[in-house]
Amino acid sequence: MTSNPDLFELPAHVDPARLFDVDVYAPAGFETDFHEAWYKLHEANLPELIWTPRHGGHWMPTRGKLIGEMFADYTRFSNRVGAVPKELGELLRFIPNNIDPPQHRDYRTLLNSSLSPAAVIRLSGSIRALAVDLIEGVREKGRCDFKTAFAEILPIHIFLNMMDLPLSDARHLMSIATRVIRPKSVDDARDAMQAFADYLIPWIERRRDGSGTDFMTRLVSGRIGDRIVTRQEAIDLCVQVLLGGLDTVLNFLCFAMLFMARHAEHRRLLLDEPGLIPQAVDELLRRFPVLTLGREVRFDMEYAGVIMKKGDMIALPSPLHGIDALVNEHPLKVDFHRSSSDHSTFGNGPHRCPGNFLARTELIITFEEWLARIPHFLVEPGAEITYVGGVVGGMAALPLVWQV
Prior knowledge:
This protein has 404 residues and is mostly helical. The protein contains 16 helices and 14 strands. The protein has a three-stranded antiparallel sheet with strand order 3-7-10. The chain has a three-stranded antiparallel sheet with strand order 4-14-11. Strands 1-2 form a two-stranded antiparallel ribbon.
């Protein structure tokens, strides 16, 4: 795990003892078990803050306490660049994700109006109807690829309905989102961002007069202080909403359902106590985070025993936080009766994911309706589950089977 400093060009301020060759988008062994690969970094007993030469060279906290602190502390660690390498992070500009307080506040308010608990509760009936429809569409078949039959459909259809966009565009938007989250190159990411803009601009122009009642209209005709949002701000806001509601929920759904397929005792517990499902979802969120985000050091400083320089990049892997034994007892164990947990699955601080209540609601409804209709299911015998890396971790497919 320790890197030979002679093989890498280290910045002068980086202590060679902090150098470890870790790829935050593809930790060693992630192809066979994404979260186990992260946990092995804890087992390696690395320093709590390391430097990796990957992705342009950047800092990475390895312990939950630091991960949570660095997510929340925008005064020292700016959201201006939200991904590594910096060249990619500066390209993937989203509002309000890449704006720091206090400017962040007005943009966040635009999102909150449609993502607040009250707004999500009003949507819960339509979310439940869609979940039921998708489950009934596969129930009599006795098998499905959960990823394509359910997880890739539910979250994007919810957001397309909220934004009053055609459901028939879902696959096209998913293909663009995948190129943003897992680009083959910086140029590929740039092209994908342009594809998002090309798709959204005609819709944005039609909604700028504010005459509609949908989520997109409220975003693109909203006001920042005493002015209306600009055209570019409108694009960035809409891309943030679409991306935020697609890949993260999709992939967490797959990890959660894979766990349930492999653990009959946990399924039985929820079948016997369906009122425990919200608490179970919270525990699964702790155990199976999928997102790694970037931060930029605001000024020269000493932090956690290392010298950091203005402009240094940091990668914050949320999977490492929830499975840290220093903050959660027996972290790999899924305990639906766990009394407390510490994680950064939705981030921390002012930039905590504004859609976290919506995501949690989607997950709760999925478990309620799936278990009511397909209570006993397994991973298809002989199927090999393979994982994919990137800003958001995921899996290639999730073939499930059950008796009809």
